[in-house]
Specification:
By secondary structure, this protein is mostly helical. The protein contains 12 helices and no strands. The chain has 2 domains: about 90 residues, no CATH class; about 210 residues, MetI-like fold. Belongs to the binding-protein-dependent transport system permease family. OppBC subfamily.
């Protein structure tokens, strides 16, 4: 366990530096006048001219060399200072903490709904098989092939515009969370129910499970004592891999539903060329990915019925 935590700590440092550096290079490589775009975000596109852009350039020091700007960012990062937004002037860390809560709420709700959908469907298709398994396989394949923003648009058309059950977009009430979370959940459940199906079918056909049934245990007793933990370990491990889909989906879903999370803020920051906020948001996502994968590894360690240790 100690080796795992040390490995993850080193990975966290490498990810922080790599994500920040790559983001810096990509933003500096974009065409166009960065000062003009920032001035347009501050004052409006109609009120911006070359003089306003020059004032912004001088104020923010955008005329300094790339190496000087990178070194300043790196030294600020070592002191946990993410700087201030070039558009609003607010500290990036405060903006990110505000957006992080909304993103975690959306991601947590989406993953919870996905598990509520995937677990019974995956277990049922593994236990009964036949036409149920074929139908779920077809539906899962189609759902996975459809981009997450298309699922979101269909959800808006059906549940918001046609049936008028939930708000189209925004934030403020629990009803605003339903469509974004459901969109993310459907995209996640399309894969996770098949993983649960595969692992459950493997366990149900294993010799130790058949021996448990031969001892006289009921189907529920055999599943409770010999099935749940053996199925849970690979499923929880897969959730760590699926975090990539969560991060990808959150960025698009937040933009689609105007959800005030990190993905929505990142999209606006890219359009406005707000480099500190872009670097901070990308850095936050990278850190979250490493931390959540560490928690998944720890959970697998304690769920493993063999009591094995993590190398």
């Amino acid at each position: 366990m100690r080796q795992l935590l040390l490995k993850r700590l080193l990975q966290l440092i490498a990810v922080s530096w790599g994500v920040g550096t790559l983001t810096f290079i990509l933003m500096r490589s974009l065409p166009g006048d960065m000062a003009y775009r920032i001035a347009a975000s501050r004052y409006g596109m109609d009120a911006v001219d070359s003089r306003a852009a020059d004032i912004v350039r001088e104020e923010l020091g955008l005329d300094q060399g790339a190496l000087s700007a990178y070194w300043q960012w790196f030294t600020d990062l070592l002191s946990w200072n993410l700087g201030n937004s070039l558009v609003s002037g607010a500290p990036v860390s405060e903006s990110l903490w505000h957006m992080l809560g909304h993103s975690l709420l959306l991601a947590g709700a989406g993953m919870a709904i996905a598990l509520i959908i995937a677990i019974p469907l995956g277990l049922a298709s593994a236990y009964w098989g036949g036409w149920l398994d074929r139908i779920l396989l077809t539906v899962s394949t189609v759902m996975r092939a459809v981009p997450v923003f298309v699922i979101g648009l269909l959800a808006v058309i059906v549940f918001a515009l046609e049936w008028n059950l939930f708000p189209v977009a925004g934030f403020g009430t629990p009803a605003h969370l339903v469509l974004p979370a459901l969109t993310l959940a459907l995209s996640l459940a399309a894969i996770s129910n098949r993983v649960i199906h595969t692992e459950a079918k493997r366990v149900f056909g294993s010799s130790f499970y058949e021996f448990a049934r031969m001892k006289g245990l009921s189907p529920w007793q055999a599943f409770k004592h010999h099935g749940i933990r053996n199925i849970a370990v690979p499923v929880v491990a897969f959730l760590g891999i699926q975090l990539i889909t969560v991060v990808e989906g959150v960025v698009m879903i937040e933009s689609l539903f105007s959800w005030p999370g990190i993905g929505h803020g990142l999209a606006h920051a890219i359009f406005a060329r707000d480099i500190p906020l872009i670097q901070g948001a990308a850095l936050m996502m990278g850190v979250m990915f490493v931390v959540l994968n560490t928690l998944v590894d720890i959970a697998c360690h304690y769920l493993d019925p063999r009591g094995g240790r993590i190398a």
